[in-house]
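hey so i finally got around to running the thing on that chain from the lab meeting. sorry it took forever, my laptop kept dying and i had to restart like 3 times. anyway pasting the input first so we r on the same page abt which one it is
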Amino acid sequence: MFRMVFDTETTDLNKCFCYDLGYLVFDDEDGNIIVKKHFVIEQIWHNLELFQSAYYNEKRPAYIQLMRSRKATMEKWGYVMQEMIRDVKKFGITDIYAYNATFDEKVFEYNCDWFKTQNPLDTLAIHDIWGYA
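ok and heres what got predicted. didnt touch it at all, straight out
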């Protein structure tokens, strides 16, 4: 069985525009990572005023290095949602995990509503790693 773990970084706790989204898919039988993806969200990255409101805005040079080394790619929110949906379908994902999943779920709802995209979390059971800890 495959499972997905994800994390987001946002500009704010209330207007939580996502500028960083990463996820991985792993095989829970042997623990091997099957897919690992890291995205910088183009619409937020290029809105410098909005990005400067981010809690971790001082990490901008680190993001540039991640993109230059191809460890992260810059994509539009809608593309990232479609990519995630494809991976959910491809690997038969039914459960997804995040640390502080309640916040991450809010991030997806806010951004999918703002950008008018399908929410890949709508069909998944969401588990909070923080709650398990």
